[in-house]
Amino acid sequence: MVIRQDRGRGDRVLRLHVENLACSRGERRIFEGLSFALDSGDALLVLGRNGAGKSSLLDILAGRLAPAGGSLALEEAGGRSLSECLHYVGHRDALKAALTAEENLTFARDFLGSPALAPREALAALGLAHAARLPVAYLSAGQRRRVALARLLVAERSLWLLDEPTAALDAASQETLLRLIDEHRRKGGIVIATTHQPLALAEAKTIRIERPAPDRSAFVVADGEGA
Amino acid sequence: MRPFRALLIRDLKLAARVGGSGLMGLVFFLSIVTLIPFALGPDLNLLSRIGPAILWIAALLATLIGLDRLFQADQEDGSLDLLRLSETPMEMVVLAKVTAHWLVTGLPLALAAPFFGLLVALTPESMLAMVATLLVGTPALTFIGAVGAALTASLRRGGLILAILVLPFMIPTLIFGVSAATAATGGTIPFATPFLILIALSLVAAVVGTVGAAAALRSGE
Predict the structure, then answer these.
(1) Any chain A CB within 8 A of the CB of B87?
(2) Residues of B3-26 as b/e, b for ≥16 C-beta within 10 angstroms?
(3) How far apart (Å, rounded) are the C-alpha atoms in residues A219 and A206?
(4) Touching check for A65 and chain B: CB below 8 Å?
(5) DSSP 8-state code for residue A115
(6) How far, in whole angstroms, is CA B199 from its chain's centroid?
(7) Cα–Cα distance between B111 and B115 in angstroms, integer?
(8) Are A123 and A147 a contacting pair, CB within 8 Å?
(9) A80-110 burial, b if ≥16 CB within 10 A, otherwise e?
């Protein structure tokens, strides 16, 4: 595996190259031959059935899992590594149940660096201003997911990796999330989201990861512009 | 320094909240030390002779309390993934978490040692020596334990394996801790000799433990 580190140009122009990426878990080949390139303002929807390897793709991008082959590269202003340029919101919320929503976000803001919105403003943006002082343990699944999504706003990161971001969210919160994603893309960010429900993102690229047929390893189809 | 401080403060807050391991180590320490006089009987000479050893073994076991959750809790709720996304190296993450853990387990043990010393009939100078040896010796226990905690972070029921893994490595600390505490009340060796070795053990454990735990966390998953 090669991770190239290209020193950026002056402005905030991003480009994420993924070439021929392959992923194995244990002996099992999950997918291979996955290639795509994303520029500033792009969104990528990763579709596929349960267990097809959508989350594994995000894990590789987030640096949690080593790819079995292929290369990843991010060209960005400043010489930071890929994992320092991204936000990851996955199935596990990464929230501490004993701390309040505000304390969780304050920690994320101080720890991740490049602070953006204040924790309270971020919570307000997701319609959770009233829950700022409540321990996360008291919140419902949807509210916890919204606190986790508020983390996207407290620290400035250009690449958002969202694993099933709409899970547990009600219709109004899904609208809010779509608006936040649009805003992020307008500012030049990149969003990669996995989903198995339709997610109404304007001009999003889509890839579909198929479950492997019995006689061959997994493969990727339908790389193109979505709705 | 800002991420380091943020993580340290978060872990201290967590320890103080409901379900945190805050004072559990101290209560456990108290239970063990209280049991010994009941088991041995009221022989004050015997108690004060083996008192330092009892306190050190109790401190060693109390250090293990909560150690299994040091990285496991972060692993389970996904916080460890968040901790990987910072420009802060994993070593600093480990250092912050271990420091927080020592502040809520090791430090209270050392400070409470004079009180617990009363239960095993320690002399005043012996109590002072206990405080000093626990103060410089418990960091070694915590750092050694951190490597085990990092290795067992993704295991269910990792607590038992953790204890079996790390206890053998804690033996040198135990030996020099007890011999320094005993040397303070007389004997053939001066206090400084085992005490300085104890300090050296803590310093070595701080380096090896930090690097080892960070390596274990990186290769985890």
Answers:
(1) yes
(2) bbebbbbbbbbbbebeebbbbebb
(3) 15
(4) yes
(5) B
(6) 14
(7) 9
(8) yes
(9) bebbbbbbbbbebbbbbbbbbbbbbbbbbbb
What's the mean pLDDT when you consider all of chain A? 81
> How far apart are alpha carbons A26 and A2 in whole angstroms?
21
Strand A86-89 to strand A159-163: parallel, antiparallel, or no bridges (unpaired)? Answer: parallel
Instruction: Please answer whether residues B166 and B147 qualify as being in contact, where contact means their C-beta atoms are separated by less than 8 angstroms.
Output: yes
Cβ-defined contact of A92 to B78 (cutoff 8 Å): yes
pLDDT tens for B81-96 read: 888 888 888 999 999 9
A172: its two tokens: 């109004």
The angle at the Cα of A74, spanning A208 to B71, to the nearest 5 degrees, equals 85
- Distance (Å, rounded) from C-alpha B144 to C-alpha B94? 12
pLDDT band at B143 (very low <50, low <70, confident <90, very high): very high
Q: Which of B202, B205, B183 is nearest to B192 (CA)?
A: B183
**Is some CB atom of chain B closer than 8 A to the CB atom of A94?**
yes
- Are residues B77 and A99, on separate chains, in Cβ contact within 8 Å? no
Q: Which of B38, B171, B18, B86 is nearest to A96 (CA)?
A: B18
